[in-house]
Amino acid sequence: MTHPSQLGIGDLRTALDGKKTSSVEVTTALLETINAGKKYNAFIEVSNEQALSQAKAADERFARGERAPLLGIPIAIKDNILAVGTKTTCASKILGNFLSPYDATVTKKLRASGAVIIGKTNMDEFAMGSSNETSTYGSVKNPWDLDRVPGGSSGGSAAATLAGLVPGALGTDTGGSVRQPASLCGIYGLKPTYGRVSRYGVVAFASSLDQVGTFARSAADLASLTEVISGHDALDSTSVAKAAPAYSSALTKGVKGLRVGVPKEYFIKGLDPEVEKAVLTAIRKIEDLGATAVPVSLPHTEHSLAVYYVLAPAEASSNLARFDGIRYGFRIPEPKDLKDLYYRTRSEGFGKEVKRRIMVGAFVLSTGYYDAYYLRAQKVRTLIAKDFTNAFTQCDVIASPVAPTTAFKIGEKMNDPIAMYLSDVFTIPVNLAGLPSMSVPCGMDGKGLPIGLQLIAKPWDEEALFQVAGAYEAATNWHSMRPAA
Amino acid sequence: MFSSDDIKKLGKLAHLYISQEEEVELIHKLSAIIEHVDHLTSVDVSAVQPMSHVHGSTNVTRSDELTPGLSIEDLMKNVPDHSGRFIRVPLIVE
Predict the structure, then answer these.
(1) Considering its fold, how many domains does chain B have in total?
(2) pTM for this predicted structure
(3) Residue A379 is assigned to a structural domain of this protein
């Protein structure tokens, strides 16, 4: 049998169902692959023994005749998602020893569907970053070029999936943190509609924007993983009571008659010409398959980054106020008094980028500046969302680049926050509008680095994304590109 | 744009000590960030409602039924300093 690191979720399902292998065999092989892949620094915690006992339990469930979509298949989850038996550190010193006290709803759903939770992946601290360099556990390395970033903040999940350490993984996407690393690594990444997936048990960064997303190496695998985690949850009041459709059935629908909107505001100065060329070629390919490309306009796009860098820090400063060293997490030794305990715990526990964002948030919410920054940004957010509503009267999906460039060098943007923030310029508007969006591999640049096509759909219409991804994948080969081991 | 006093004030609001070295860096970087978001002032928002939830959130209620909660023993494992089920903190009232 082909080594499990080369097999996707669907392949593993077939092999397990055909009794060609067992979950224990697959899990053992992937634990070895993870161990051999330490150079990527993709994992913060690997659950060696627990994964094997979950695998054993999965084999027993299978032997009893039980069938479930992910039964026996190892999946990795980002380290801001709670899973009993693991620490959840958010790649921060302040949660360095935090034991997950319960399962996140997505974790519970993975377990119910039989998945083996093999470990927790590296990320930017509290998901704040676009390169995975703000992790207290060090940068993740892009498997295409170890001197380059995998993107962020779910860089560990993306690198692990690309390198075959796992067939799929979960991440979270607040401003592009699933789609941008998927693009920079050359795999599929999906951010579902806001409210499609429960956020219960996911450490909050910016609650009005955060959504759990999925990574896989094929559109079909992405569909099956997303199906498992989707759906309403009474424990998350922002999750919406809508039945989650079977995304897999959309993959073979074809794109005949589909209207693909091409927003002119996404093809701008600063977009790498090679990325532009690959994305436009991909759109032409989708046209060849029967779709029609139509020009659309999203006129407020230029304000998206500014809106995001007011709202996300504001929400973060509020969400991260809970980390004070009292009830959980890191606490400094021998505080002088209560104030000293709070201040020193937070000053020593948070990294630079997190502190910077907390302070930006404190500023835009402070007396005298609230109306000028926070309230105004919330209003411009309305305009950005309306742009999409208008555009979707003329098209069924929107196609654009995911990121303006391919993977950049580690260290290249660390000293210039604005340059770093710009890597999310095309993904951020989607979070502001709460839409579903996917990164699809669509090319390679001259340096041999992957390029991603971003597909955006109407709220709750993830199926349209899978429809396009399925048709495009069947007609191209970009999804099967792998770096030399 | 930000002065040393501004940074100190923000530090207080955020419950963070700011070292001399951090202060210099923050003056520079926070100013760059706020300068970047300043073009929002050019957008006409006079007739626009602010958005705090993309699907127009309303209050979500559920029936008031008792369900099993989290285990106190498990939660206490994460408390940095405790005595039994009590969290130990520095003296609050003199």
Answers:
(1) 1
(2) 0.97
(3) no
